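Lecture notes, unit on protein representations.

Consider one protein chain, 62 amino acids long.
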Amino acid sequence: LPLVGRHPQQDGLWLAVGHEGLGVTTAPATADLLSAQLFDQTPPLAASPYLPDRFLGALAHA
Protein backbone atom coordinates (compact mmCIF):
# COMPACT_ATOMS: atom_id res chain seq x y z
CA LEU A 1 0.00 0.00 0.00
CA PRO A 2 1.21 3.53 -0.70
CA LEU A 3 2.23 6.00 1.97
CA VAL A 4 -0.20 8.90 2.19
CA GLY A 5 0.04 11.30 5.09
CA ARG A 6 2.28 13.19 7.46
CA HIS A 7 5.85 11.96 7.80
CA PRO A 8 6.14 10.60 11.35
CA GLN A 9 9.56 12.11 12.06
CA GLN A 10 9.89 15.17 9.80
CA ASP A 11 7.63 18.11 10.65
CA GLY A 12 6.03 19.75 7.65
CA LEU A 13 6.70 16.84 5.29
CA TRP A 14 3.70 15.09 3.78
CA LEU A 15 4.01 11.94 1.68
CA ALA A 16 2.07 10.59 -1.27
CA VAL A 17 4.43 7.89 -2.56
CA GLY A 18 4.66 4.18 -3.28
CA HIS A 19 1.84 3.78 -5.77
CA GLU A 20 4.03 1.79 -8.18
CA GLY A 21 2.33 1.59 -11.60
CA LEU A 22 -1.01 2.81 -10.27
CA GLY A 23 0.02 6.40 -9.58
CA VAL A 24 -1.91 7.92 -12.45
CA THR A 25 -5.11 5.99 -11.82
CA THR A 26 -5.07 6.48 -8.04
CA ALA A 27 -4.02 10.14 -8.09
CA PRO A 28 -7.55 11.57 -7.55
CA ALA A 29 -8.23 9.36 -4.51
CA THR A 30 -4.75 10.06 -3.12
CA ALA A 31 -5.32 13.80 -3.51
CA ASP A 32 -8.67 13.56 -1.70
CA LEU A 33 -7.15 11.53 1.12
CA LEU A 34 -4.13 13.79 1.52
CA SER A 35 -6.09 17.04 1.37
CA ALA A 36 -8.51 15.77 4.03
CA GLN A 37 -5.56 15.05 6.30
CA LEU A 38 -3.91 18.40 5.57
CA PHE A 39 -7.06 20.35 6.42
CA ASP A 40 -8.11 18.14 9.35
CA GLN A 41 -11.29 16.98 7.61
CA THR A 42 -12.96 13.60 7.54
CA PRO A 43 -11.19 11.54 4.88
CA PRO A 44 -13.25 9.97 2.09
CA LEU A 45 -11.85 6.54 3.02
CA ALA A 46 -10.01 5.04 5.97
CA ALA A 47 -6.62 6.72 6.21
CA SER A 48 -4.97 4.32 8.67
CA PRO A 49 -3.91 1.68 6.11
CA TYR A 50 -1.97 4.37 4.24
CA LEU A 51 -0.38 6.35 7.08
CA PRO A 52 3.42 6.42 6.97
CA ASP A 53 3.70 5.80 10.71
CA ARG A 54 2.33 2.27 10.29
CA PHE A 55 5.94 1.11 9.91
CA LEU A 56 6.85 2.45 13.34
CA GLY A 57 4.51 0.06 15.13
CA ALA A 58 3.96 0.83 18.80
CA LEU A 59 6.47 3.70 18.68
CA ALA A 60 4.11 5.73 16.50
CA HIS A 61 1.49 5.82 19.22
CA ALA A 62 3.76 6.32 22.23
